[in-house]
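During the no-cost extension, the postdoctoral fellow (Dr. R.K.) reprocessed legacy sequence entries with the updated structure-token encoder. One reprocessed record is reproduced below for audit purposes.
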Amino acid sequence: METPSQSAGAQSASVSTSPAILGTARVVLAFDVADAIDLDHAERLVESGRTRAGMGHSRRAPAYLAVDPPPLRVSRTDEPIEIGQMRTREAVELTLYDFGAISVAYEIELDCALGELRGLADALYDNEALAGRARASAERLLGELGPAIEGAGVGEAVEDYVIYRVAPADGARAPAFVEAQRSEIAQILRAEVEPLSPGEIGEVMDGTRSFGLNDAIVIDWNAAMVVDPKPEDTVVVLEFANVELLEMRHLDDKLDENLDRAFGELSRRSWRDWLPVGSPMRAQVEELAQLRSDGARMFEGVNNALKLLGDQYLARLYRLAADRLGTDAWDASILRKLDALESLNEKLGQMHTHRRMEILEWIIIVLIALSMVQAVVMGK
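Re-encoded structure tokens follow.
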């Protein structure tokens, strides 16, 4: 039986035989912070260290490919954070999206053996210290941008993702490097210290894509490895996919709350529902319509922000990232709940109309009865 010291020795030997790499580990943490952000107003409020982030096209592509509207990137400095045997850079990048999300990015310098990333990946997985520091950075920025924020408040949920941007120190071509180190890369992306089975390695490496002979990317649900001399547009797509996942989770939770409240209101009927004005049912119909409208607007705003129709490679990367992150499942859940809200709204509307018709019928009956009584009285 292998002892802990023997296991550690085997891992150390594995690291020593790993190829040397250079690059950075980019850790992005996304938060929902508002109902909406006026990016133009926010840009005017930030005194320095700001840019409107477009897409840096590393391949030939239509000029209109972009995140629309372009998010606002704000650069700040912070104390380095110890992550295992490594530490973050002082620079922190915060990216604001108009639909109310912030992505906070930290970078770690990499000049090591590929095998050393296993320990880094393990230390980064659900790192509470890093998430707490990122949340504090987002809250400070929100304090500066108060007038540009609608419905400010940093949500509890956080989505983190790690993008390893590496280059083999020996100059090996990217596809060959990825294929030769497939088991190591799979272990890093899954943040697993112990070796993976061949089947699991194959499942991770199914997320491998290349555009040319000098680039390759492996995308998984927890992290991605990019071996590309010009990875800017790829990184934008991956960061957006992570933010989109957060917003879909947030919207799904919000719709759950709205549906629970709507079903609760349906079970509590009041005599005031019969009133022609001031009816609680009418107010509920209007509220449900507004809730569905707000949910649909947010859903469309997030899904339509990234425009990749003209770049087939980036579009494939985005679809792969969405598949790995499970965004499609969240989309389907949200659409079902939006349909449920619409159905509830229609039923409440029909009930309200039916009761109004009943009131009118009773009014007509009463008027007929009164006219008959009047005729009898006047006849006498």
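DSSP finds eleven helices and 14 strands in the chain. The chain has two domains: 17-229, 242-379. The remaining legacy entries will be reprocessed before the final report is submitted.
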